[in-house]
Design a protein that fits this description.
Helix 1 (2-26) packs antiparallel against helix 2. Strand 3 (94-96) and strand 4 (99-101) form a beta hairpin. The chain is elongated. The chain has 117 residues and is of the alpha+beta class. 49% of the residues lie in helices and 16% in strands. The protein has 2 domains: 1-70; 71-117, no CATH class.
């Protein structure tokens, strides 16, 4: 459960903001009382989308980790070089706690920002 909140915190805040807008608009005195049905619909829709996004994110992380351990090449986003990405091979790269690290690279790369080549 902690992993869910850590991964989806930004999207939870965005969803709460959108739900707040729906609640604010549908509870105005000039809006029909029947419009309040939008509140639970919006809550269910946003909650379902959050869960779907989390499942997709975890599936992506597992696929990248599985491909790394199988010896496939991994591309990670890196805005500090002119190519925009770093190619990761299984050789000296290590995957620990969801981050790729290498003894010769000054920084680590989060698995969420990587794709299988």
């Amino acid at each position: 459960m902690v992993n869910f909140f850590r991964e989806e915190l930004v999207y939870i805040l965005i969803s709460l903001f959108l739900l707040g807008i729906v609640i604010f608009v549908t509870t105005r005195p000039f809006v029909s009382k029947k419009a309040r049905i939008a509140i639970p619909i919006a809550a269910l829709l946003l909650g379902g989308l959050l869960l779907l996004h989390y499942k997709w994110r975890m599936h992506h992380i597992k696929e990248v980790a599985k491909a790394f351990y199988a010896g496939k090449n991994i591309l990670c986003l890196d805005k500090t070089n002119k190519f925009g990405s770093v190619l990761i091979h299984k050789g000296e790269w290590k995957l620990t706690n969801g981050e790729f690290s290498h003894p010769e690279f000054p920084r680590t790369y989060n698995i969420r920002q990587c794709v299988v080549e």
